[in-house]
Amino acid sequence: MSELTPIVKEPITHTQLVRYAGASGDFNPIHTVVPIGEQAGLGGVIAHGMLVMGFAGEALSTWFPRRNIRNFQVRFSAMTRPGESLTVTGEITGEREVDGEARVSGKLIVKNEQGETKLKGTFEAAKS
Amino acid sequence: MLKDISKKEGYQFPPYTFVVERGKIKEFALAIGDMNPIYHSKEAAQAEGYRDVPMPLTFPTVLDMWGGNDFEAIIKSLDLNPLKVLHGEQEYQYYGEICAGDELYVQAKVISTEHKRGMNFFLLETTYTNAEGETVLIARSNVIERVGGEQ
Fold first, then answer.
1. What is the distance between the alpha carbons of residues B51 and B102, in angstroms, rounded to a whole number?
2. What is the pLDDT along chain A (128 residues), one digit of tens a residue?
3. pTM for this predicted structure
4. 3-state secondary structure A29-78
5. What residues of chain A lie within 8 A of the CB of B56, using their CB?
6. Which of B31, B83, B88 lies closest to A39 in CB terms?
7. Nearest C-alpha in B relative to A42
8. Which residue in B83, B95, B145 has the most chain A C-beta atoms within 10 A of its own C-beta, making it the best mutation to test that interface?
9. The CATH number fitting domain A2-12+47-126, selected from 3.40.50.280, 3.40.1280.10, 3.20.20.510, 3.10.129.10
10. Beta-carbon separation of B32 and A57 below 8 A
11. Which domain CATH number covers B98?
């Protein structure tokens, strides 16, 4: 149906993961301490899933007024590492009425430059 | 040996209260690289009709991690191997506006557990209530523990 303008993010850096750990309070060391990531069998650190969802959330509140967002759901499908550049794309897939409120529903995908899907999500937003 | 994760069903995490702060919202938006002005300045937010700086869509993770149910608390409560924990799914349902200055009461519990394909799944649900007693947000989170290797 209706495509939304893609949001292209800067490459993720180790520093960004440290910064996100501090901001969010998620200090799981697999996101910030390389030897721990290796010990966990991940070959290094991986980005917080919630950081990637945060990119998707940034896109959503760019596409729609923040206050109109009613539902936002994602499934994480691949790990993201420092150096990867992610892009959020989305589209409106339908409309429905909930408790007298007209809403649009849609889906979004976050992918890296190679086209690997990091997460898929759905959302609903009130029509303004 | 397999641990019986079903015993964790119905487990209620200790409730906590959290005051949403403008500076914390800005720090969080900067970490994501979200430069939407409504998250960075009260004036910009009010110009868009918000009471104060609104909570970014994924900010509830800050409430959880800084408010009480951080990574350490979750692995301890659910008896997880910290090196084997992954985040499978996350959902938010937004019922009311949450802005800087709001105090929220937060209660999380384990809704269900499942063991399949060498992994343990825990579905957590968190309810966020404002000072007026209104449920303004519900979060659902699927936490995965990779336990493979135990045939």
1. 10
2. 689 999 999 999 999 999 999 999 999 899 999 999 999 889 999 999 999 999 999 999 999 999 999 999 999 999 999 999 999 999 999 999 999 999 999 999 999 999 999 999 999 999 97
3. 0.94
4. HHHCCHHHHHHCCCCCCCCCHHHHHHHHHHHHHHHCCHHHEEEEEEEECC
5. 54, 57-58, 61, 66
6. B83
7. B83
8. B83
9. 3.10.129.10
10. yes
11. 3.10.129.10
